[in-house]
Request: fold
Amino acid sequence: MAIELSPEQTADVRKHATTEPAVVRIALIIMVTVFLILFLLFPLIIIFTQAFSKGWQVYLAAISDPDALSAIKLTLIVAAIAVPLNAVFGIAAAWCITKFRFKGKSIFITLIDLPFAVSPVIAGLVFVLLFGGQGVFGEWLFENDIKIIFAVPGIILATMFITFPFVARELIPIMQAQGSSEEEASMLLGASGWKTFIHVTLPNIKWGLLYGIILCNARAIGEFGAVSVVSGHIRGLTNTMPLHIEILYNEYQFTASFAVASLMSVAAIFTLVLKNFFEWKMDKGMGEKA
Amino acid sequence: MTLAKPARPSRSLPGFGLTLGFSLFYLSLLVLLPLSMVFLKTAGLSWEEFLGVVTDKRVVASYKLSFGTAFLAAVINLVFGILIAWVFTRYRFPFRRLLDGLIDLPFALPTAVAGIALTTLYAEQGWIGQWIPFKIVYTPIGITMALVFVGLPFVVRMVQPILQGLERELEEASYMMGATRLQTFQHIIFPEIVPAALTGFALTFARALGEYGSVVFIAGNMPMKTEITPLIIMTKLEQYDYAGATAIAVVMLVISFILLLCINGLQWWASRKTEEN
Amino acid sequence: MKKRFAVIWLSILVLLTGCLGKEDAADGTAKAEEKKEVTLLNVSYDPTREFYEEFNEAFSEYWQDEKGQKVSIQQSHGGSGKQGRSVIDGIEADVVTLALAGDIDEIAKHRELLPPDWQGKLEDNSTPYTSTIVFLVKKGNPKNIADWDDLVKEDVSVITPNPKTSGGARWNYLAAWIYAQEKFNDDENKTKQFVGDLYRNVEVLDTGARGATTTFVERKIGDVLLAWENEAFLSLDEFGEDTFEIITPSISILAEPPVAVVEKIVKKKGTEEVSEEYLKYLYTDIGQELAAKHYYRPRNEAILKKYSGQFPEMKLETIEYFDGWAKAQQEHFADGGTFDEIYTDSP
Reply:
């Protein structure tokens, strides 16, 4: 296929071969933009306009209400416990899946993904069946005065279940692509397994890890269905932010409800910014390697 | 979710026992043990009773609705997902980066917030709803819209890296051999993105089937018409019918598991395809 | 970077645990000073939020004056059935104040949380206040709705919650049933047809009473909302009397939302006395006044009379019309009951 092309011809081929006529291009861009504005931008905008529809004072009052503050605190505590645990699990699972061969690996991977496809309602239900009053451990827990369901531990468990696969799913492909040669070299040079992990593996996966953690965290903060089943909705005690939003909404305090929702949207936007930053870092890291 | 060539695993690295042991323990404790409770509880029902519950008219209507809307949402996301990924990787236009960043919003925004926001927007008196001649909120269309929102990022994020990695030389060659742009797309580009797009499709579908938080606000919850399966589980629970609730949960769990197996199969297919190339 | 991240992480954790620790310490000193503070949990249904908020304050004051003990009352609200299930599943409620006796019966059936004869423990079937079902329509009543038979007209769209999940909705359903049964002289088929026609006019079937009210007043869907009387009044308060008005039908049901102490739990927590006093306080003049203020019909005749302008005389039937909750539940709301027939038999 040795056809000689003049520079103009090359440019011409490049132009026609890899892009569409301007009309099609513009039509597609408009279609996509309108779709995204309708589905993503508008919902975001309406949250903020509704939140500020009665002015700053009402907004501040809504988010500094004691029940709102306790909901914010509970949400942060839940995320602070659930996310690191799932991160540790994600690293361990990714390590054994990508660095070793063993039987039943693909079933193992499917099982890790399972919580992702399970309806949040079922996720809440299973913990009620385990720890609820009529559950397997119900009577024993009651007698020993240990509260799991309708208390903070139950909310943490349900959140952990829902966010279970996030970090593992993010790390497995990265570690798979990187292979094991660097670790093997480090071991040959006499470093211990732990040292190898800290000094060789971790720097390689850190942006992917943070990326997984940030997604895990976003989901942990925002989970509604599963938490709603196990929370018991006790004001100031077991209401997380999404539940508090629902309560306010049901109390005709629409503005306050959107105010708390706007806080969560800010968290979501912050998550997106961080995520894009990590993604960019990851691409850069890969680029340098290649 | 990778399409990269898997590295050769090695036995010389330490920590196999520790990491596998820990992962399995954590998995069993947090996922398998709780999920097994659903099956245990359902075992209290006889086979006939079980069939009776899961084939009840209202429940069957809810399967149809849940599957129908989830499937429709997945199809919409498949089409628009590919389109969005294409436009973002190939064209340059104002606010492209901003919109690109916004794609992941449904992952980060709590579903209940999304449900309330969509209901407010598309209600008959809402900003957008008032311009639309037919009803959206409290109909299956509304449910589908919530599910489209929730599943939006999957296909885009699966297809985007493939399109970015695509070598343009192939398209140029195709052009020089006289193929039209449409033919090029059909025969060169499309086959490349099929596995990733299908994986994204299956993920959207699985996620949409179980979605609860955003849907209850927009659904209207009419029996036989706009009542989704997760809501039936909730309803059964609130009537103190634990066995009934878990029976339906079993059906949903089995379906989820089958879907996941399909997704993993697709990914295996995809990675083999890239290896062949 | 790693280190910095770890430091930030650790300091967040320390801060969080620090906050928690501090609170515990504060509690500890308070405990030492005076009588131990008690915490009660009142698990209630949807429309009682505003009432109990005020009542709890009144009771705390009363208890402080009387016994010199601080009592703080936590509230949980939701659909009545959902709340009943939470109690069965282990939420440690000292008292339950639910929408209907059926839900407390259900609690009594499980885990021996309550004795089966709980309803005899307090006066008036353990219901310190009652309510009824009325219609809420847009101001000016554009569809001219006056009574139950206007609700089955073809162009009328009705909003009511789902009787399967909402206690209030069961009262709605039974009230409509009473009207039809009276109208058709106990002809069961015609009654079924009537109630079926009414529910075929329902546009949105929310899971709880509050959800239905929101749909009607905020989303402006439907021509008429079947609502608790107190809920209807509350909507007038919230949205102004110039937007909605209340229509009282010719006949309705006397809704009796009962209250009970969850004995197994208070025994464990040692809160028997304060929980019982809490419920009894509902029957005092202060409790009854507050109930009336929040548009519940008080049991106390004198106070009811004082508020008679607010509560029009209506012909009201009690649940005994259906021979009690157990029977009503079985016949109408259980799977395969008359409510299910409406949806499964219709074309």
Notes: The mean pLDDT of chain B is 85. Chain B touches chain A through 104 residues (CB under 8 Å).
